[in-house]
Amino acid sequence: MDLQAVAATGWGFAERAYIGGWEVRAAGGRTSRANAALPLGDSGMPLPQTLEAVREWFAERALPGMVQTIDGSPLDREITDLGFTETHRPALRQTAPLGPVLETLKSSTDARHVAEVTTELPEDYFAAYLRGRGIPEFKTLLTSGDALIAFAVVRGDNGQALSVGRVAIDTGTGYAGIAALATVEAARRRGLARIVMRDLLAFAAAHGAGDTYLEVEDGNAPALALYASLGYVTAHRYHCRRL
């Protein structure tokens, strides 16, 4: 199982093309995952020519050429040896069997407090997910891709969105990716993110998922502590190399 390829199904894009087995994506420069080349197969060309083709594709869109690579992988080392040493937005991909994570979440949350789960992007999602507020591309990023996508919202008594999250289920492999988690500042440290994750993973399990993954910045100590308490372990570290 190639976790990088699985994760590629779980995030959207505004534009996509292929250079052989390399997938290239663009979304106006918003987020590294949606604006990078993903080396998911053989490009059919020597690496220097492939990287030049990637650079040209992004240059046509007034964007810097980026390649997402796994830190320390043979490809990552080859690209470094060609002189491309600048990296951006390092992060960890973590994974865990879905069943135990879901049981831990069920045992640590109030079953009476539930999230609304829908396959449509809630209109007020960005009231909590501030990273995407006011950025038109984010609606496309959250709703497109090659996976079965669902959203969860925990609301307050007045209907306000307090905590949100997204799951993308790769039906081919049974992996469910949790992403775009956010809780409004006034509602933090109340376990709402656990409720969001619980109900998203319950949805994923009902749709055949058996494993789960997520992506987290390696300096995000609170998130890393939460995920570790649920049984997630790091599969690899990745970043984008600028061409």
Automatic annotation (TrEMBL):
Pfam families named in the record: Rv0428c_C
Protein name per the record: GNAT family N-acetyltransferase
Species per Swiss-Prot/TrEMBL record: Catenulispora pinistramenti
Organism taxonomic ancestry: Bacteria, Bacillati, Actinomycetota, Actinomycetes, Catenulisporales
Domain called N-acetyltransferase: residue spans: 109-243
InterPro entries in the record: Acyl_CoA_acyltransferase, GNAT_dom, Rv0428c-like_C
Highest taxon of source: Bacteria
Membrane-crossing residue ranges in chain numbering: none
